[in-house]
Amino acid sequence: TEDLALARRKKPDVIMVFLHFGEQYQRAPNARQRATVELAFREGADVVLGSHPHVLQPYELRTIKDRFGREKPRLVAWSLGNFVSNYRMRFADGSAILHFSLVRDAAGVTVPTDVSYTPIWTYGERDGDKVRFHVLPIERFADNASAALKLPGKALRRMLLSLADTEALLGPRDAAATRARASR
After folding, report:
1. Given CA atoms 79, 80, 86, 90 in this order, what sign does their dihedral have?
2. DSSP-derived 3-state class of residue 129
3. How many CB atoms sit inside 10 A of residue 29's CB?
4. What is the pLDDT, as a whole number, of residue 172?
5. E strand or H helix at 14
6. What is the C-alpha separation between 111 and 125, in angstroms, rounded?
7. Is 70 strand, coil or helix?
8. Pairing of strands 94-104, 110-127
9. Phi and psi torsions of 112, nearest 5°
10. Would you say the C-alpha torsion 156, 158, 160, 162 has a positive or negative sign?
11. Bridge partners of 17?
12. Residue 6: enclosing H or E segment and its boundaries?
């Protein structure tokens, strides 16, 4: 609360909080994460980005009123997963790049909008006695025939499973679908 108070005194357009929290390998936020994010939003945070569980957790765009009476859309990404890792277990080898815009509305308030994501997968390729890591945007590599980096069959299947897992957890990738979800 002290850090958020300090941030508010600076009168920024947006307050973004990055938290290292949550239980490792759990694909849903726990009660402590939820309480922490509610506190951050109540104290004026606009965007909360989380990490630590080593797996993706959902994101939410929802309208919340802070303790100052400002009701507006706020964004939380509970966990963005691993961007680059040597984890070879299911759910820990995939992640997402979160995209969103910050837009000043008609009232002059800056809000997060147009949330979408790019599913990524980390591939470790042996190069002699070293491993060379590739962070692959899955959509560009799903068609192994035209991809610049040819994946072995087992790796391709794991990448496609990661894509299915990501879409099952996060839903549609486009911003229009996220806006429809947020308005419910």
Report:
1. positive
2. coil
3. 22
4. 80
5. none
6. 41
7. coil
8. antiparallel
9. -75, 140
10. negative
11. 48
12. helix 2-9
Place of tokens 């040819």: 150
Q: What Å distances lie between residue 3 and 67, 73, 79, CA to CA? A: 16, 21, 21
> What kind and span of H or E run contains 174?
none
The number of residues in the chain equals 184
Over residues 68-125, the pLDDT tens digits come to: 999 999 999 999 998 877 778 899 999 999 999 999 989 999 999 999 999 999 998 8
User: What are the Cα distances from residue 43, in Å, to 16, 18, 96, 184?
Assistant: 12, 15, 28, 24
Q: b vs e for 46-58, b when ≥16 Cβ sit within 10 Å of the residue's Cβ?
A: bbbbbbbbbbbbe
Task: State both tokens at 62.
Answer: 């929802």
Intra-chain end-to-end CA distance of the chain, in Å: 30
Instruction: Give residue 100's identity as a one-letter amino acid code.
Output: F
Beta-bridge partners for 135 = 122
Percent of the chain that is helix, strand, coil (3-state, to 5): 30, 35, 35
